[in-house]
Design goal:
heterodimer, A: 422 residues, alpha+beta, nine-stranded mixed sheet, three-stranded antiparallel sheet, 20% helix, B: 90 residues, 21% strand, flat
């Protein structure tokens, strides 16, 4: 019996050796803190997600039931809800500091988007561009390969909310939205409108639970008297209303918790302004994030995805801004006695604790680039609730014509009233 | 804006009616544009998030009295503009 010679194990080269000081510092350093909530789906590893009944890898989401279905034996199953699995609905009023789930951890700058897999079925090497997809077909044996481990490039979140609306339902919603806006729509948009081109995409969000206290200071006025004074006589007679008021220094403070506040995890989607229509995608929030399930890349088969590129630290100002707004709306009801209004001048928010979980949320997205100004218009459908919002390019000449027609008509009426009363 | 025009001209008979044409044109343009482009829409997280708030606390102290003014409300009322940020105290 012959034995093949075994090559001695070569140590892998990992850079030049450290200096003595660096070695000592590294030895003394505290171990890096692990994630506060570990959300890796231990039952899955990278590679083949097999049907638990027949072992096939032809698994995908069946939107009508929200379950994974094996295309071979029709077996249906689903992953556990993260709400119960990781206790996300509990203890918001006792949160301390910043708790970050493992899928929402900081993105490492050197983490590559392109992953190379070895197909476990046939041994071929398959490349997955995790920036846009987390599945790939092995081009040799046709098995579906999945990315299930959390790679530090933001592509694998803690949880996923599966699509519920089918493509047909989304197309119907988009068609309905656009057809009620036909008259003043840009001619070219109407000609090129093909709602069947809608794409199902999982967009990255951070879902935040937080405990906060906000304070506001400002001025409020209470009317104490109102009277009219008349000056002149005959045709020059004028009546003026005057007011007297008490001015108060007003302070308000409110403690509150928010459950599943949802913010964009992609820097491109988080920019709002006149040069884009990202507000459209923002408007279809909220999602029923309580129903999000543990990560399983099979939910993404047939859909595209956009990876998260914002870290928790970068989104803290967004959270604080939203908490300040929420606090302002909470104290609004206590301002009833200030009948002349309140002018807030200073505000403060203390975030006692926050918990951050990254999720892929499902959106049917129809996009259209307007050639005249380069603006990218979206019609977005929330693939859970069906809420639809969009931006339709308008035909400026038609719009101006309509405005002038209404203006001329009103001016005509005004003129005739003046002539009649003269 | 229309309100201000009316208020400014309210003393001078019915001449202010002449503003109806331009105001109507601008208003029509703005309404249709907004219906198509939805530039003003965003997620109403103040309303659509699960929020549990403790009772609001605070106080008010009278600091001044305005004995006569033609303004019907306070300058710069922002009590309904929840997203308008004011000076931030750390």
């Amino acid at each position: 019996m012959t034995q093949e010679p075994v090559e001695p194990q070569q140590p892998t080269f990992d850079g030049p050796p450290l200096s003595l000081e660096e070695e000592l510092a590294a030895a003394k350093a505290e171990p890096e803190p692990g994630p506060s909530i570990e959300t890796v789906n231990e039952s899955l590893k990278d590679g083949l997600n097999r049907c638990p009944k027949c072992g096939s890898t032809d698994v995908r989401l069946r939107a009508s039931t929200g379950m994974l279905v094996c295309l071979f034996c029709r077996n249906e199953w689903h992953e556990a809800r993260v709400e119960e699995e990781f206790g996300l609905g509990e203890g918001i009023d006792e949160l301390e500091g910043t708790v970050i789930a493992s899928g929402a951890e900081d993105i490492q700058a050197d983490a590559a988007d392109m992953l190379t897999f070895k197909c476990e079925a046939c041994g071929a090497e398959v490349v997955v561009d995790t920036a846009h997809a987390l599945n790939a077909r092995c081009h040799w044996c046709r098995h579906t390969l999945n990315v299930n481990q959390q790679i530090p490039n933001g592509a694998v979140p803690d949880a996923v909310l599966p699509f519920r609306l089918t493509k047909e339902e989304a197309v119907a919603k988009i068609r309905e939205f656009a057809s009620s806006r036909r008259l003043f729509a840009h001619r070219r948009f109407k000609k090129e409108f093909v709602p069947e081109n809608v794409l199902g995409v999982y967009l990255p969000y951070l879902v935040i639970d937080a405990r906060a206290e906000s304070q506001y200071w400002g001025r409020g006025e209470v009317e104490t008297r109102r009277w009219t004074e008349t000056t002149g006589s005959g045709d020059n007679k004028r009546t003026t209303t005057y007011y007297a008021a008490d001015v108060y220094q007003v302070a308000r403070q409110v403690s509150f918790t928010v459950d599943d506040l949802t913010v964009e995890g992609s820097s491109e989607r988080a920019q709002f302004g006149t040069s884009n229509t990202n507000n459209i995608v923002n408007t279809i929030l909220p999602f029923d994030t309580k129903n999000a399930v543990k990560w399983n890349a099979s939910y993404l088969v047939g859909f595209t995805s956009e990876k998260r590129d914002l870290n928790v630290e970068a989104l803290k100002p967004v959270l604080e801004d939203q908490l300040l707004s929420i606090g302002r709306s909470e104290v609004r009801g206590s301002l009833g006695r200030f009948d002349r209004g309140v002018r807030w001048e200073q505000e403060k928010v203390d975030v006692g604790g926050s918990r951050w979980v990254s999720m892929y949320l499902p959106v049917w997205l129809y996009s259209y680039q307007q050639e005249s100004n380069g603006l990218l218009h979206y019609i977005a459908v929330n693939a859970r609730t069906g809420e639809t919002m969009g931006s339709i390019p308008v035909s400026q000449p038609k719009l101006i014509l309509a405005a002038l027609t209404v203006g001329t008509f009103l001016e005509g009426i005004a003129g005739s009233i003046l002539v009649a009363s003269a | 804006m229309i309100g201000e025009v009316i208020a400014m001209a309210s003393d001078d008979s019915l001449v202010w009616l002449l503003a109806a044409g331009p105001a109507g044109a601008v208003g029509t343009y703005w309404l249709i544009y907004r219906y198509y482009r939805n530039t003003d829409k965003s997620h109403a997280y103040e309303r659509d998030t699960i929020i549990e708030a403790q009772p609001v606390q605070g106080g008010e102290e009278k600091v001044d009295h305005i004995s006569k003014t033609r303004d019907s409300d306070i300058d710069g009322d922002n009590s309904d503009d929840y997203r308008e940020r004011v000076q931030r105290v750390q």
